[in-house]
Amino acid sequence: MRPLIIISNDDGYEAKGINCLIDMVRPLGDVIVCAPDGGRSGMGCAFSPTIPLTLTLQREEAEGLKVEGEGLKEETGSLQMWSCNGTPVDCVKMALAELCGDRRPALVLGGINHGDNSGVNTHYSGTMGVVMEGCMKYIPSVAFSLCDFRADADFEPMTPYVRRITEHVLRNGLPRGVCLNVNFPLLAGAGGKEHGASDYSGVRVCRMAFGTWYNEVSKFQHPRGFDYWWMVGNYRNDEPDAEDTDNWALQHGYVAITPTRMDVTAYEVMEELNSQISNLNSQI
Amino acid sequence: MRPLIIISNDDGYEAKGINCLIDMVRPLGDVIVCAPDGGRSGMGCAFSPTIPLTLTLQREEAEGLKVEGEGLKEETGSLQMWSCNGTPVDCVKMALAELCGDRRPALVLGGINHGDNSGVNTHYSGTMGVVMEGCMKYIPSVAFSLCDFRADADFEPMTPYVRRITEHVLRNGLPRGVCLNVNFPLLAGAGGKEHGASDYSGVRVCRMAFGTWYNEVSKFQHPRGFDYWWMVGNYRNDEPDAEDTDNWALQHGYVAITPTRMDVTAYEVMEELNSQISNLNSQI
């Protein structure tokens, strides 16, 4: 039996990125998509405890043959695509609880996101919400993002990377509590000329860069006289010279793989905090 | 000049928890509250890129004298309380961008949350969203939560702990990229009898427990015939015997302080992943 792959995203089930991802990995397994019914950018790990959630079947295809871009015929797994009115995390929870039947998914994939999810964006990203949720259910999980916000971004050059990384994780799994955050750089001139996989500088295993959003709110006045604000902002890499970060790799044309922990404990400060706490205990 | 303290939460500005927190820390600084205009539980680090945000001034008080519970007169800082139609993270971003003027906050506090934010709940918690946002702005940040979901939960016994921890962080700061997630246990018989600070077993510095939500969705049928689901669920501690976890501490009556990282890189797997990636690079 083929492995079962769950896919979700935060751009909604109709986005080009998720549909490209489906095509890339369908030869590797049966695919169940449960994705938001529209854009849910910036939702992070949010879930919806207060609204009734609904599912709508959008597409269903049996396993079968499919002609690949390289002219090879490959067998593909089956596909079910559902839309949901909730967040990316809701989608994964719904897929696991209601759409997999007795099958245990081998993999949860997020993306392909239209836009960067590196650095501190990790925390805001609904695409990362998808894979953190998979990770919290102890399922190997991988997020794919492309540093190109355009609706018609060109995902094609990513194909062999997405395939190899997905195959690798299907074969080897991931350590418990660790998921992968994979970001692809914007290739120079993207949108204007054709690119291929060889235009990437290669793959780098990275750490998350420290960066800061600034100028985050933009103030306007409503015709009725009150103020309102749009969340916008610019991002600054706070350690631009650190060559081991995801931000650096992306700026230099590399595919950045950041292994990401579900356990957010700051172990390195526990000992010092412990010595301070004993003091605190005695004060109360 | 007094230090400036920003406070937000995910239960909304009218919740008892945030108003108790304000009273506890007002003697320590000037306080600006920017909190959601209603409940935003489960929002994690979500922010709102697609809706216009608004602010409403709910309360404003000058600095002044105030009679404390123990009968001591203490000077309190000034207070501004704003409500916002966004998420907990939006509230912090708005406070930093629009409400602090030229002052740099010394502290961001989240809570006091009505309910537990230990274990994997860290990722879903809007209270933790507040302090992660503070942490991402390099401001020392502390989340306080009480394992009691009731609207009229008794926060009083927490007072000396909240005061000492807040004073400690104001005095010593926190390492860059580290915030504190402080959870208080439900005291036996809470709601039925009076408790004091001495009813807690003490304070423990903990790591985040691995745990799992299950039975997360509950299916219903709408009168018009379609299915819908409520997000609910039960939590299981997956390492109940591990005495170094926040879940264990709370179950044994301790106040659990979990130092929490903004850098979620899984450093411990980077070397192995690196050796696998070189293989991957050669396949493409």
The rough form of chain A would be described as globular
Strand order of the largest sheet of chain A: 3-6-2-1-7-8-9-15-10
Largest interface: A-B, 87 and 87 residues
Structural class of chain A: alpha/beta
Outline the low-pLDDT stretches of chain A: none
Order of helices and strands of chain A: EHEEEEEHEHHEHEEEEEEHEH
Q: What value does the Rg of chain A take, in angstroms?
A: 20 Å
What share of residues are in beta strands of chain A?
Answer: 25-35%
- Main pleated-sheet profile of chain A: 9 strands, mixed
- Helix count of chain A? 7
Residue share in helices of chain A?
25-40%
- Quaternary assembly: homodimer
Query: Averaging pLDDT over every residue of chain A, what do you get?
Result: 94
Total number of beta strands of chain A = 15
Terminal Cα span of chain A: 61 Å
